[in-house]
Amino acid sequence: MSDDATQANSSNIEEHHHFKIFKPYGFLSQFVPETRKRKKLLAELADFPKGTMAIGRLDHDSEGLLLLTTDGMVSHQVRSKKVEKEYYVQLDGDITDDAITQLQNGVEIGIKGDKYLTLPCRVFKLASEPNLPTNGRKVRDLRHGPMSWISITISEGKNRQIRKMTAAAGFPTLRLVRVRIGNIDINGMQAGDVLPLSSPFD
């Protein structure tokens, strides 16, 4: 192949872009608005390149790490069960050792009307409240009972899975923050921050 042809081919290779963001509470994990829904979208956080998409989702009420890319192949890789996702979860009540064991071994939740047993995962109680940015809303008053925090690391991602898991174990989720995907974390980030990545596994 001639040098001219090689140069022409290399110029046709699309350069992809990758980002990590701290999704704030109340934002949808999408760029295109839904009909009749006036919700905040990721596009409001920065001027992203054309074709940018979220890798996976965090629901409207959840916060924390979300990866964005213009490369659909990368999105498929990150969403695989080979990549861990870690969450810090504030719970209604002081979680028990028995409940933690239930979560570790797998609990039965509902997915689209069917029963599903979650895969074994890593769960432990945090000794103190984690250092996270405030989300501007008060969960509830301590006078209404104790609360606790856990770290839970899963390799799957069913719809609202963490919330369903903690509810099944008897401790409903009050606040949910994803803090890590693979080897990428949100350390030092504030809600709404957008940082470029040279690759999605920096």
Automatic annotation (TrEMBL):
This is Pseudouridine synthase. SUPFAM superfamilies: Pseudouridine synthase. Keywords: Isomerase. InterPro entries: PsdUridine_s_RsuA/RluB/E/F_cat, PsdUridine_synth_cat_dom_sf, PsdUridine_synth_RsuA/RluA, PsdUridine_synth_RsuA/RluB/E/F, PsdUridine_synth_RsuA/RluB_CS, RsuA_PseudoU_synthase, TruA/RsuA/RluB/E/F_N. Its EC number is 5.4.99.-. Residues 22-168 form the Pseudouridine synthase RsuA/RluA-like domain. Belongs to the pseudouridine synthase RsuA family. NCBIfam families: pseudouridine synthase (TIGR00093). Coiled coil: none annotated. It is an enzyme of class 5 (isomerase). It comes from the Bacteria.
